[in-house]
């Protein structure tokens, strides 16, 4: 959704790319003459992006920081620093998914890892081998919308008692045992995504990050977020709605006791989806939802 992002941040002179990845979005911003700060929790991604954008880094137009967008101060970003545009492209980057050793794929033989960076406490195998049944059931229900979450949790516990989970095959077999032999890629992708979200604390991290990112905007600055999971999109939608409301008091309160004015305005009434042409060239874009919000001047 590069063109849509470029249009939303067209007036920015300084941009914070919170999920640098391969540097594709940042490269487009830099080509437009913007100054860019890129953040990523994946050391490999950061190194690759720095190599790609080395000329801009040498010119002082680009800098790269290792860290989690949910803790920008920990990544080395000064608390007082603000930006005209901020981009958050959630989910797994293509280079992470395509690298079998990273363990994001359900392809045969892939390790159960799924850590986006070194800050994750457990990899996917450790999570599946240690989480209790109640928490696992809740995880599958909340992050995968799985109606048979309790049964699947029991199946995973039963199987790990016989042999610890180690590869994608172990989880795929457990899914098939519960959903049946006709289960396929969409089911695997949904369950694997749920485990990945838990491994990387993605939803909790996004919830913490949203107000902090808003505070990083200059007056009139734009926050653009691409999400790929209904839970992510719900958090973004609700935050933008609340920030755009003139009153956030409970309905029964007789007199307004909140700020009384909106903090800014939502720029996308509904989520923007990838075009058919983009989905055709990149099937992973089919679940992308873009929302944007602008801070009041």
Automatic annotation (TrEMBL):
CDD domains (alphabetical): AdoMet_MTases (cd02440)
EC number of the protein: 2.1.1.199
GO biological process, one term: rRNA base methylation
Subcellular location: Cytoplasm
Cellular component terms (Gene Ontology): cytoplasm
InterPro entries per UniProt: RsmH (IPR002903), SAM-dep_MeTrfase_MraW_recog (IPR023397), SAM-dependent_MTases_sf (IPR029063)
Positions that bind S-adenosyl-L-methionine: 23-25, 40, 69, 89, 96
Annotated catalysed reactions: cytidine(1402) in 16S rRNA + S-adenosyl-L-methionine = N(4)-methylcytidine(1402) in 16S rRNA + S-adenosyl-L-homocysteine + H(+)
Keywords of this entry: Cytoplasm, Methyltransferase, rRNA processing, S-adenosyl-L-methionine, Transferase
Entry's Gene Ontology molecular function annotations: rRNA (cytosine-N4-)-methyltransferase activity
Role noted for this protein: Specifically methylates the N4 position of cytidine in position 1402 (C1402) of 16S rRNA.
Similarity field: Belongs to the methyltransferase superfamily. RsmH family.
Protein's name in the database: Ribosomal RNA small subunit methyltransferase H
Organism name: Gemmatimonas phototrophica
Name of the gene this protein is made from: rsmH
């Amino acid at each position: 959704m590069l063109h849509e992002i470029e249009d939303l941040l067209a007036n920015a002179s300084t941009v914070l790319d919170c999920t640098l990845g391969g540097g594709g979005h940042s490269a487009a911003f830099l080509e437009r003459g913007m100054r860019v700060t890129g953040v990523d929790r994946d050391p490999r991604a950061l190194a690759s992006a720095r190599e790609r954008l080395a000329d801009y880094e040498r010119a002082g137009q680009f800098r790269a920081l290792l860290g989690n967008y949910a803790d920008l101060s920990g990544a080395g970003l000064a608390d007082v620093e603000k930006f005209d545009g901020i981009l958050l492209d959630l989910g797994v980057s293509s280079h992470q998914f395509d690298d079998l050793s990273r363990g994001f794929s359900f392809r045969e033989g892939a390790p159960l890892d799924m850590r986006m960076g070194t800050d994750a406490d457990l990899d996917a195998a450790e999570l599946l081998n240690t989480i209790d049944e109640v928490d696992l059931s809740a995880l599958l229900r909340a992050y995968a919308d799985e109606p048979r979450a309790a049964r699947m949790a029991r199946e995973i516990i039963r199987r790990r008692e016989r042999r610890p989970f180690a590869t994608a095959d172990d989880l795929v077999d457990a899914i098939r045992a519960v959903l049946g032999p006709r289960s396929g890629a969409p089911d695997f992708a949904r369950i694997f995504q749920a485990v990945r979200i838990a491994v990387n604390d993605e939803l909790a991290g996004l919830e913490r990050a949203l107000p902090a990112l808003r505070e990083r905007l200059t007056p009139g600055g734009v926050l653009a977020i691409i999400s790929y999971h209904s839970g992510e999109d719900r958090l973004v939608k609700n935050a933008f709605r609340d920030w755009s409301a003139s009153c956030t008091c409970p309905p029964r309160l007789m007199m307004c006791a909140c700020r009384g004015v909106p903090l800014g305005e939502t720029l996308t009434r509904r989520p923007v989806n990838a075009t058919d042409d983009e989905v055709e060239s990149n099937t992973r874009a089919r679940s992308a939802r873009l929302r944007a919000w602008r801070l009041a001047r």
